[in-house]
Amino acid sequence: MPALTALIEIERLTKRFGAFTAVDDVTFSVARGEVLGFLGPNGAGKSTTMRMLAGFMTPTSGTARICGEDVVDRPVPAKRHLGFLPEGAPTYPEMTVTGFLQFCGRARGFHGSALGDRVAHAMAMTQLEGVRLQPVETLSKGFKRRVGLAAALLHDPAVLVLDEPTDGLDPNQKHEVRNLILSMAPTKAIVISTHILEEVAAVCTRAVVIARGRVVADATPAELAAKGPSMDAVFRALTMPESEAA
Ligand SMILES: Nc1ncnc2c1ncn2[C@@H]1O[C@H](COP(=O)(O)OP(=O)(O)OP(=O)(O)O)[C@@H](O)[C@H]1O
């Protein structure tokens, strides 16, 4: 088997807020073709890890690299290869969907017909054409999520970091977004955070489980499922504090 190229490399990443350690010595890498599910209960440290990986938060210690570029030392080349969907809704809520995506595209250095093509393609992938002239603030939660996703995909980056990409979507929209992720997977390295266990089986080639800031499992969905009677039971055993005492 040919060696897989790791496009995301996280090494001993740690974030402390005062005396509290939110992310504790986290190490993993993601190769092209992999969709990594980043799982954990509320407050486990998923968003904090993703923000550090995306260069939006400075680590207390450890490193994160995207396509070989350190996100702290070389933020501009690192971000060129990155599409990031943060938690929550897109900023600039008063802009229309088209206006917001054009703004994001210009910030990425696109102009003229290339900009128009990029925006049209991203809107088609995320099925936003029907709301293209609506201000972002007037959209439902699921549509706002898709606007954020379109912004992350605009420049066709090799690495996608998606924080709860299907949050707020109805079952049909969830299905569409999962299909979109699967269709992009062969050519990219993708990390998605989620607490929806079925999402891991549906789209992920690998799962990293985090609890209280620490990695407690790094396995394929099938390997995880084989550890117990159900994915729910495995997740609880891995992430509940009681299990540590057992
Ligand atoms: N800026 C901050 N200052 C202090 N504590 C913070 C800050 N950001 C996050 N935390 C804390 O760090 C921990 C990890 O938070 P994080 O948002 O990364 O968790 P999460 O796994 O993404 O949770 P959720 O599934 O609820 O989104 C939480 O206890 C949170 O309260």
What does this structure look like?
- GO terms for molecular function: ATP binding.
- Keywords: ATP-binding, Nucleotide-binding, Transport.
- This is ABC transporter ATP-binding protein.
- It comes from Falsiroseomonas tokyonensis.
- The chain is of the alpha/beta class and 246 residues long.
- It folds into 2 domains: 1-81 and 158-246, Rossmann fold, CATH 3.40.50; 89-156, no CATH class.
- The protein is 37% helix and 26% strand.
- The protein has 10 helices and 10 strands.
- The protein has helices at 46-53, 75-80, 97-107, 112-125, 141-153, 171-184, 197-203, 221-225, 231-239, 241-245; strands at 6-17, 20-31, 35-39, 61-66, 69-70, 82-85, 159-163, 189-194, 206-211, 214-219.
- The protein has a 6-stranded mixed sheet, sandwiched between helices.
- A hairpin with a 2-residue loop joins strand 9 (206-211) and strand 10 (214-219).
- Helix 3 (97-107) packs across helix 4 and helix 4 packs across helix 5.
- The longest helix is centred in the middle third of the chain and has 14 residues, at 112-125.
- The N and C termini lie far apart (39 Å).
- The mean pLDDT is 91.
- It binds adenosine-5'-triphosphate.
- Adenosine-5'-triphosphate binds next to helix 1.
